[in-house]
Design a protein that fits this description.
Immunoglobulin-like; mainly beta; 41 strands; 6 helices; six-stranded mixed beta sheet; eight-stranded mixed beta sheet
């Protein structure tokens, strides 16, 4: 397996040259009747052009029989595709090469240099004065670009040059493709596994910290097959977690802890899900960038109900906050002078919940986008996952507290601020309800207050929407709107006098129809600069949603209103009224009386039956026969 890598210092980056980064599963499996495309991982840290080709000489290949019928290799894009093929195992021995995008010079510790050009004239070396090909040529034409320099040399010797591209590296990529029997359906998700979120997309670029475990979350489903494994290739000290299945979905977590030797390196991972019948999912590969300076510069702060990621701007040099989004694109990333800030609730902005044996993990990620309206990308995306993990025992102790902790956020233009969402005993809003969980009778008045606290004095609070759900999930398919787009939707809703930073309202308690025992209330809130007539707060009740109203702010635009934030409170439980309790007790007493009377009647009937049976036996004088007679 021949490998060539030029390690000279590049004139464009002033750093050592890097070869392309790649890896692959040793064996890729595909049904014979399913046309399939494999995007080979061809990532170059220097941004060079990477191409793939079949090995052609000794050292590049063993059999050198690569060009199979029904297989096609797109050499420019490193894409291998197959149409219907005969069952069997096909060996591929490829070479991956990188080429400079612009002419450059590589220098070495001994003082020598070499030239790598996008178009280099291969027959100049046949000239008598071939010394022009060394570093002396640069002194002869000090102001010439490298390509222009060789053009001068060619003209001087009357040579018609032949352009040939210079390669920087040549590395092998060898694997097999196993073509299996046909399947009833080629659609992923039926017999062949379908990869699901949070599985990263093909070519995604993720980040990791030295000494901090990196987790790769894989998920897949197949309605007509059982997924039994995930095939993964990656760094040597990668470990696999336990595979677990819920319904059709199967998940597994891959862990890897980068060491100091991995600092500034780019680690490739490739993976695919496999069924019990040996069918593979789509084949994907990603890159994980290890940055030791990432420690301490980018921080995740976990509170009881929110998590906030602070990303140092230098880490994403050249990236604007307008180019970043969370799992839910409607939730925006803000910034200050030094950091990008992503603050989300555990039940908002697309935050995902994963349950392990001992913990509950809340996960989200910041992803770069070419354009906020795009649904696809043709450039490598940068994804920075962040999460907060809580012990199940710790979460259990607070899961039924109706009085949750303060919701803390940070945002450019508004600094650090907090929302407080509380239940009160009456319309004076003095005494906070502390019962856990809060129990009410149907039609009892429920009093709620939302308060914002900020270092800014000229702000006003706006409650854009509130909805009730039977579970602690604001996106529950069963819900009831209390406030929508700033408009009242509940006929019992009462708005009480508050302040610019306090919103107070009440409504009659209710229960969801069906086998639901609890009620949770979630509200979308925001802040605005007080006195500005063009803010969402000033418009009040509208027919347009907050998401439709808001858009990305430019970096120079002054913020007059904050982002939307989701806060929640609960649970509430409906208890029986005294009359219902008395009625139930009466029914129980009546039932007891009926049971007692029924018992007396049954005893009487049994007694009478026995009496007549004995009387009849005496008349007929039946006698039991002995065993011998029988």
């Amino acid at each position: 397996m021949e490998t060539i890598v030029d390690l000279g210092t590049r004139s464009d980056t002033l750093k050592p040259n890097h070869s392309p980064v790649t890896t692959i599963l040793p064996n890729i499996r595909v049904p014979g009747n399913c046309p399939t495309t494999f995007q080979l991982l061809a990532h170059d840290p220097d941004g060079d052009i990477v191409r793939c080709r079949y090995g052609v000489t000794s050292g590049e290949c063993h059999t050198c029989h690569n060009n199979y019928l029904n297989f096609n290799l797109n050499k420019e894009k490193c894409i291998l595709s197959t149409s219907s093929s005969v069952s069997g195992v096909y060996l591929f021995e490829l070479m991956m090469e990188d080429f400079p995008r612009n002419d450059l010079i590589l220098s070495y510790d001994d003082g020598s240099v070499s030239y790598k050009y996008t178009t280099y004239f291969n027959n100049l070396a046949s000239a008598n004065n071939s010394h022009w090909l060394n570093s002396d040529a640069t002194s002869a034409f000090p102001n010439q670009e490298p390509t222009e320099l060789y053009q001068q040399i060619a003209v001087g010797y009357g040579i018609t040059p032949t352009p040939v591209e210079h390669i920087l590296s040549k590395i092998p990529l060898q694997f097999t493709v196993e073509v299996t029997n046909s399947v009833p359906s080629c659609t992923y998700g039926v017999y062949r596994p379908l990869l699901l979120p949070p599985t990263p997309n093909q070519g995604a670029i993720l980040t990791a910290k030295v000494g901090v475990p990196f987790q790769l979350h894989l998920s897949a489903q197949a309605s007509h097959s059982s997924i039994t494994d995930f095939k993964v290739t990656g760094p040597n000290n990668t470990t696999r977690g336990t595979i677990y299945t819920s319904g059709y979905e199967t998940r597994m977590t891959v862990a890897w802890t980068p060491t100091d030797n991995d600092d500034r390196q780019r680690a490739p991972f490739c993976f695919a899900a496999e069924t019990s019948n040996g069918l593979y999912s789509e084949y994907r590969c990603i890159i994980v960038i290890v940055d030791g300076s990432y420690i301490g510069d980018n921080t995740v702060v976990c509170n009881e109900n929110t998590m906030t990621l602070y990303i140092e701007k230098s880490f994403l040099d050249g990236t604007s906050e307008n180019d970043l989004q969370l799992n839910d694109p409607q939730c925006l990333v803000s910034s200050n002078s030094t950091h990008y800030i992503a603050s989300v609730g555990f039940n908002s902005c697309g935050t995902e919940i994963e349950e392990t044996g001992d913990s509950i993990v809340f996960k989200n990620q910041v992803t770069s986008v070419d354009n906020i309206t795009d649904v696809i990308t043709r450039t490598h995306q940068v994804a920075i996952p962040f999460s907060c993990s809580f012990s199940k025992e710790e979460r259990l102790s607070v899961s039924f507290r109706p009085h949750k902790a303060i919701f803390e956020f940070a945002e450019a233009g508004f600094g650090n601020f907090t929302y407080k969402f509380q239940f009160y005993t009456d319309d004076q809003f003095i005494t906070v309800q502390t019962q856990s969980p809060l129990e009410l009778l149907l039609r009892d008045m429920l009093y709620l207050e939302i308060e914002v606290t900020s270092s800014l004095s000229n702000i006003e609070l706006f409650v854009e929407s509130c909805r009730a759900t039977p579970h602690d999930n604001p996106n529950d398919p069963v819900f009831y709107n209390i406030i929508e787009n700033g408009c009242s939707k509940d006929e019992t809703l009462v708005i009480y006098p508050g302040t610019s930073t306090k919103s107070r309202f009440g409504l009659e308690a209710f229960a969801f129809i069906g086998s639901y025992e609890e009620v949770y209330i979630s509200c979308t809130v925001m802040m605005c600069k007080n006195g500005d007539p063009d803010t969402r707060c000033s418009r009040g009740c509208t027919t347009k949603s907050l998401a439709a109203h808001r858009g990305k702010r430019s970096l120079t635009e002054e913020a007059t209103e904050s982002l939307q934030h989701l806060i929640s409170q609960g649970p509430l439980r409906m208890k029986q009224s005294s009359s219902e309790g008395a009625k139930e007790k009466t029914m129980q007493n009546d039932s007891t009386l009926v049971m007692c009377l029924s018992g007396v009647v049954i005893v009487a009937i049994v007694g009478i039956t026995i009496f007549f049976s004995l009387k009849k036996a005496k008349i007929n004088k039946y006698e039991r026969l002995s065993t011998e007679e029988f």
